[in-house]
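Consortium newsletter contribution from the modelling node. Members have asked for a concrete example of what our holo predictions look like. Here is one, prepared for the 4'-deoxy-4'-aminopyridoxal-5'-phosphate complex that several groups have been discussing at recent meetings.
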Amino acid sequence: MAYDIQKIRSYFPILKRKVYTKPLVYLDNAASTQKPIQVLKAEERLHNDYYGNIHRAGHYMADKSTIDFEEVRGKVQQILNSPSREEVIFTKGTTESVNLVAYSFGERYIEEGDEIIVSEMEHHSNIVPWQLMAERKKAIIKVLPFNDNGELQLQKLDELITPRTKIIAVAHVSNVLGTVNPIREVIEKAHEKNVVVFIDGAQGIQHTSVDVQELDADFYAFSAHKAYGPNGVGVLYGKKSLLEEMPPYQGGGEMISEVTFEKTLFNELPYKFEAGTPNITGVIAFGASLDLLKEIGIENIAAWEKGLLDYATSGLKEIEGLTIYGESRNKSGVVAFNVEGIHFYDLGMLLDKMGIATRTGHHCADTVMQHYGIQGTLRISVGMYNTKEEIDLFIEALKKVIRFF
Ligand code: PMP
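And here is the predicted structure:
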């Protein structure tokens, strides 16, 4: 099936707007994607038609909201190929998913002197929760490094894993380097030694298909807002055998089956980990973005984005004094770079004035910046709706800014 870019763009009315009188070129999709009308309409429909708090009430509105909310759990189960619905937990985002596992897995499985391995290319949200847990439990954090191309040094994993290693936390795709990590190999190596693996899929699920059963993933987390869905919604997939053993992360309504002042009995999965009223609107609207991903096909999106990545990379490489960070063999649609003699903030600010939205700074990945001895970069990241014409506009604008300096 041909990739109908005009149809796809028509789903995103915001792409028609102008910024400082220039057509918007949105290249900050790794931070957050724009929302299609399908998502906006699902929110509107819910609130005009049948909104009610889910699970607890016995009236029509609550029942209809509950059915729609739970239907989205089924859609997430499908996109991940999770063996069961009970293993799909709604959170408020990847960050909360990491915190949930770091806390709860830590409480259950980590003892003084145990080891946690994180990769050198992690987003802060896949480092700091593990550090907090390690501090509480007197555990040790070890680091799996990457080479200058931005590829994990997988051979080092064998030396790093010891009988004290309990969990490895690694990104599916780096939000700076664009590297698509060989997570299947990481999981295989870890499982040979009975080590659990947490995959941060914040940059994964919207760009590449994921099958948690094929991967034999223990945990996989992602955020709806980076996959064309609303913000404030995230997912944690976890193997039932682990989740059942782990204590609740938060206490409150919904996560209990019975409460007395003497003792509380916890609810079954997934509700044990969903304390309080969840983001009903967000989850229901997220269902619409999952439908869209399915309709277009993740593999088709991946192929389209690869075309854009290659096109942008070759355009950037023609620019003198420009350094790209991350040139792994398997790379997703993210390019982080600097131009010699020009601060990335200045570049980003002037591009913005030309209607081009990029991101500047450390991208919440200080350890990546430290690897290259830099303060930050400019970063472009593409989504399903970007075009080669937009890449042309970006490259032209960048050249103009460089000439200006
Ligand atoms: N991990 C990675 C790789 C990310 O790119 C991000 C978001 N930039 C996160 C985690 C955190 O996601 P969120 O802010 O949606 O919780």
